[in-house]
Amino acid sequence: MSHLSNRHIAPPAARAKNARRAGSAAVAGAGSSPHLPPKPAEMSWRDYLVMLLHVAGELEHSLMVEYLYSAYSMGGSGVGVHAGKVRGWQDEMLTVAREEMGHLLSVQNALLLLGAPVSFERQDYPWSGPFNAFPFQLEPFSLTSLAKYLYSEMPDPESVKPPDRPIVERVEELVGAQAGVRVGQVYERVIALVEDRRRVPDSAFYPESYDIQMDWDEWGRSYRPESHKPYAKNPDVPPLHSRKTTVLVPKVATRTELAAALRDIASQGEAEHLGLRVRAEPSHFDRFCGIFREYEVILKVHPDFVPAHRVPVNPVVGEDEAYAPEGATPITHRESCEWAGLFNIRYRMLLTLLTYAVSGPRETPDLATVRRPTVISRIFGEMYNLKAISGVLVRLPLGDPMLPARAGAPFQMPYTLVLPPEVPFWRTQLDLLDVSEGIVAELLARGPALVDGDRYLRALREADAVARRWIEGILGKTGRGRS
Amino acid sequence: MTIRELRILPPFAIARLGSADEPQDNFTIVSDPNAPLGYRRIVPQPTLIVDDDSGAITGVRTPEKFEPRTGKHIRPVAPFLEVWARLEGDDHFQQLTTELLKANGLSAEDLAWTVRVANLKAERRTGDAGDRVEATVGPFSDHALHTLDGHSPNFLSADRVLVFGNVRFIRPTAAHPEIRLRFTPAKGLIYGPKLTAEEIKEMREADPSVHNLHIVPDELAVYDKSKGWWKFSIPPGVRNADPSIDKFYNETLPPALFAIIPPGPTWLNNNVAVSRGYLDDACDGTVEVALTLADGTRLSAVGRIVAAPPAVVPDALFVRTLADDLDQAIFGPDVPRTEDEAITRARAEEILRRGFETVRYLNVSVMNGNPVQGRDPLDIDTMPAEEAFDVYRSERPVFAPETVDTLAIMALHQRVYTALRAGAAPWFPVLLRKPEDVGDFTDIGRRKMPALMAGADGNYLALTRRQIDTVARAATRSFAMPEVDITIEADPDPALLVPRNATADESSARSARRAAELHYVAPGNPVSTRPVTSVGNCTPGLEVDFRFVWRRVFTGILLREYDNLVMTAEDPQHADLAMHRLLRVEYPAVEDSNLMRGFSTMTTQIGPNPYNAEQESVVLSIEANPNGVAPLEWSNLLARMLHERTGKTVTCYFTREKADLDNPAWEESKRQTYIQRTFVVRAFFEGDTAMISRELAQPGELTQGLCSPWQNDYRECSCYYWAAARPDFVNVEATPSGRSAGDNWFQKNHDGEYVPDDYVDDRLVLYDDLFNHWEKWLRFAIRGKTEAK
Predict the structure, then answer these.
(1) Which of B255, B205, B198 is nearest to B232 (CA)?
(2) Which site among A331, A435, B380, B410 is 20 to 30 Å from A340 CA-CA?
(3) Residues of A in contact with B34 (CB under 8 A)
(4) Is B763 part of a structural domain of the chain?
(5) Nearest to B133 by CA among B107, B162, B98, B101
(6) Are A39 and A33 in contact (CB under 8 A)?
(7) Could B419 and A227 be called an inter-chain contact, meaning their C-beta atoms sit closer than 8 Å?
(8) Which of B 347-376 lie inside 8 A of A, CB atoms?
(9) For residue B113, what are the β-bridge partners?
């Protein structure tokens, strides 16, 4: 969790105690999960709720990134005859990541309803805290990493139904000793507070934010099951062959709507018991259980099965290993390093544009409306860039090209996501395009290490030129700004 | 060396109208590897210079630049049709030359050409065979120009003709010994009746705001106005829009589609359309070449020609072209599981590329159904407005109104394309509209891709099944697919057209040959002569109305081009089926098995249930269509059956009663009550060739559904039919505020102030503007910019 919010959690001694409790908790069968730290005395309940929502946002962001990294790592020569199966797992993992994106946006709507600032922040690795199930870690897809995700998305172990209980026990064997709190526990506390009229009174809500909240029509990209044909007997069960991803981005105007939205999110992830309705589609926990089962079946027959590229744990950009944070793996191969840098720049563009779309420019709402289509287009465009570059990185060397180790998407956070005013914001975007274009030019000049990479860079260069012209247009010909 | 078989290549050639004396120079379009998101580059190609006097090719010239006009006149596109020959003992065809003829003891004079073209547009409306305009020349063996004089029983006299252009057997020379014919289309003139001053006055009075009423000049006034086409209108008392009237009339879809008095679309004129009796000089037909060998054996080959309007956006391709439909007819709806993954991927990329080329010319916020300059979106001709009128419901924008903007949406498509170039597997097959779901007007249904455009059935456009499967296959390709830098061009490398296993069996080999022939790039022929530049969603279409090709697919009956009504029985044993509706088709999925494959011919129009819009839907029924059924376009509907059952039988289910005025849905519980009949599925192509069978469509039939005159189509149909062929939005740039701004291609003054489409706003090109000066107003758009003002 954010080191700033951690300051508010509890004094160091209490944190240490919590950590001990977390560490000693059994995943299943122990009767209780690790506990969340209590509200610190220096915070009001509304303030604490806002902080918890920030925590929830960071959790969703972190999980999404971990899942994306894991999904993009899948493949390589080790998949062998199980390529079809692994492709299915990859789809499943990406589905969960997309839904986490919906959760992240929904948390922003919750923050807006509470009149609080939005946040797409999260800490870089290595990082952990009292609200994490595990230290944040990007790692290749494996049975152990899957076990961590399963734990994070697990409902109360007591409530896990018998068919899944063996999986819960296996998860405990694999990762139980390191496990902290589950995501569902955070949502339980958030929902309890939202529903607590005494601690969070009606005056804490800011329904005027409804207009500026994000909604599914804008952000859902049609990710939800299709409507039933007329006269459906059970409309709660999605139609057969329907889209299996459901991105939730509910707008919320009231306490009741907020609580319902949070329950919906929680139940889509792990905490089915929090949901107000029976979910027909599998939760994230269910999806991961499915993968886990299949994975173990394959391992029984092919113990050497490796379904992922040899990508690093916590990759960071840096040819000089001396500067790599502890627990991180520097990408030292020159070209891979440039691709990884390109990835980080696009990630930064994505996050800053997202922040802009949600909270700026308040001083010129008309402009915000006019520019919204392009901003949204850019945001999704940057997501596609991350997908593309991730696919390239896992095929490039981590360091010595003669070794089998491959690189991976670093997902390094920018130093700030604080939104500057309108004109400087776009100037910053131009700066990012400048840097990106420089890397692209260098990579193209070097000649293609991958044919795909070269084809991509040429198109990226052109798309960015269009984006640049658009920004220069709104800043005025000098590029110095005109609001 | 003995010639055993002849072919005409290309088997389908599109000519394009124009009044300039000199035909369009040869050109192709290619993508720029350094600017893959940009416009395709127009690349001049070697152009064959034909001497007017001798009819011989006197030179080959590659022009420096693309010039579609000579002065104010548009240059006609005049394709060559070559003759190819297969020799005894050889599987392959080679170009027929004078040397090859000589080797067979023959000469060019032994070849005989016969050309038949027709324009049946008036006949399609009036139902009067006397309104057919047909031209036949030949057999001829000389090298003179042969004018295609169109005659009609309803013309004033036998010597009054409508000229469809001319054909010429190109004189072979030592330098150019190949055997070829050139079709030069007409000038794009409008023929019609000769009117009296009183009749002209009456026309003017019908709409005094029209100051430039088109008057058919005397030399083109060939039509006998005592016949039915002049002042033709849908007879009174037939079902048109009023559901209480129960007399049938075989209306077109969309209705009318001809020049009327007063000018306007019929639906804005109380559904009354009174014809001006105009006839255009567009046409379609066949070119036949015959050769009698020394031993008396007569060989022949046939190709098809079409005369169509110019391709005004020569550097873009539409997302679904006629080539896509023809490829589907050749290869079937599925991508073979053995196809090279790299080629599948390249074709998936190409589909997406054409997607953003199409978006580029759409004013997306207008086409989305957003209010335009404060005006009611229903006033603007768009697909969501069309949907609203169709189902008698309020109009709803398709996407969130604040998210749509042309440059933004195009950029998003380009970013997707960019990601695919990096090797990312397509993640969006589920977002592609299924052909059977074109009547799904729920939010998710309407947002499927391609969005905001109409298909051949008048509902939302779907890609061909084969295109959809291409994207789906690319999405599931293996992790270990090798990297290959392949770009599919408008004129693709023939090797990319053919599945790698093409020679694995006879059927695959035949398909491969057909594809190679269909896409054959004949020397001298611009890319605009090829099916890849013809729109595929025909409602009714621009080059051809492809809906008409399917009417005779079940041997013995003639279906209506746009729905499941049996018009007539060509086989008397099925006479009882006339005016019944074909509801369902079934056949064994595997020969001699009980496992049946079947499909219904109609879909149901559904919309969101207001009670639970996300999850539930309701049938969008109206009084005239209580079952809310809508026809499905034949091309996609029949694709699988055609692939699996050509020459074999299928079982068809028809309504028990005549149903010309009803729209019954298939009801499984009534299966036993329907008329069940077996039919043989006709071959789509003639013999082993890639020519659309004459049993399916005779000369004139592929264009009879198009507007009469074709100029009407440009006025009547907005770009949501063919954005990249009849553009809406041109000269588009981002404004300082960040929004896209540009011109409606159809506004007269291209000044950057978009004028919403409106049939009576004289800032836009109106009917008579086009009838008088279509070459002036159909402005070419190259690199997104229209010609200089």
Answers:
(1) B255
(2) B410
(3) 458
(4) no
(5) B162
(6) no
(7) no
(8) 365
(9) B140, B289
CB B251 within 8 A of CB B232: no
Residues B149 and B181 occupy one common structural domain: yes
Closest CA to B690 of B500, B503, B509, B510: B510
Q: What percent of chain A has pLDDT over 70?
A: 86
CB contact under 8 A, B408 and A460: no
Of B408, B444, B447, the CB nearest to A373: B408
Q: Which of B402, B445, B617 sits opposite A372 (nearest CB)?
A: B402
Same domain assignment for residues B185 and B326: no
Number of other residues whose CB lies within 10 A of the CB of residue B559: 21
Is the minimum CB–CB distance between B32 and chain A shorter than 8 Å? no
Q: Chain B 388-417, CB below 8 Å of chain A: which residues?
A: 399-400, 402-405, 407-409, 411-412, 414-417
Show the CA angle centred on residue B625, arms to residues B624 and B628, nearest 5°. 155
Q: What CATH number labels A315-475?
A: 1.20.1260.10
B207, amino acid identity: D
A118 HSE (CA, 13 A, CB side): 27
Q: Are A222 and B448 an interchain contact pair (Cβ–Cβ within 8 Å)?
A: yes
Domain extent listing, chain A: 3-301, 315-475
pLDDT, tens digit (0-9, with 9 covering 90-100), for B469-517: 999 999 987 787 778 889 999 998 877 665 544 456 788 888 989 999 9
Comparing alpha-carbon positions, the chain B residue that sits nearest to A218 is B400
Section B328-340 average pLDDT? 92
SS3 of residue A109 by DSSP: helix
Find the range with the poorest average confidence among A31-35, A86-90, A212-216.
Answer: A31-35
Q: For the segment B64-92, what is each residue's pLDDT rounded down to a tens digit?
A: 999 999 999 999 999 999 999 999 999 88
Domain assignment present for B337:
yes
- In angstroms, the separation between the Cα of residue A201 and the nearest Cα of chain B is 31
**Which strand (E) or helix (H) includes residue A315?**
strand A315-317
Residue B665 contacts A, CB cutoff 8 Å: no
Asked whether B134 and B161 are in contact (CB, 8 A), the reply is no
B402–A369 CB contact, under 8 Å: yes
Q: How large is the ipTM?
A: 0.94
Q: Is residue B258 part of a domain?
A: no
Contact criterion met (CB < 8 Å) for A474 and B618: no
**Selection from B13, B24, B19, B31 nearest residue B48 by Cα:** B24
Show residues of chain B in contact with A222, CB under 8 Å.
431, 444, 447-448
Strands B221-223 and B190-193: parallel
* Other C-beta atoms lying within 10 Å of the C-beta of residue B783: 12
Structure token pair of residue A317? 């950009």
Asked if residue B537 lies in contact with residue B455, where contact means CB atoms within 8 angstroms, the answer is yes
* Residue B50, domain extent: 3-189+281-308
Q: Cβ of B752 under 8 Å from any chain A Cβ? A: no
The residue type found at A345 is I
> How deeply is A405 buried, as exposed, middle or buried, from its count of CB atoms within 10 A (0-12, 13-18, 19+)?
middle
Number of separate domains in chain B:
3
How far is B371 from B616, CA to CA, in rounded Å?
A: 27
Residues B714 and B582 in one domain: no
CA distance, residue A217 to nearest chain B CA (Å) = 6
- Cα gap B335→A307, rounded to integer Å: 28
Within a domain: B18? yes
Residue ranges of alpha helices (H) inside A220-333 are: 255-269, 284-301
Beta-strand pair B274-275/B279-280: unpaired
Angle at the Cα of B615 from the Cα atoms of B610 and B621, rounded to 5 degrees: 50
Q: Tell me if B400 and A217 make a contact (CB, 8 A cut-off).
A: yes
B458 shares its domain with B579: no
Chain A CB contacts of B476 under 8 Å are 87
**Rg of chain A (C-alpha set):** 23
Count the residues in chain A: 483
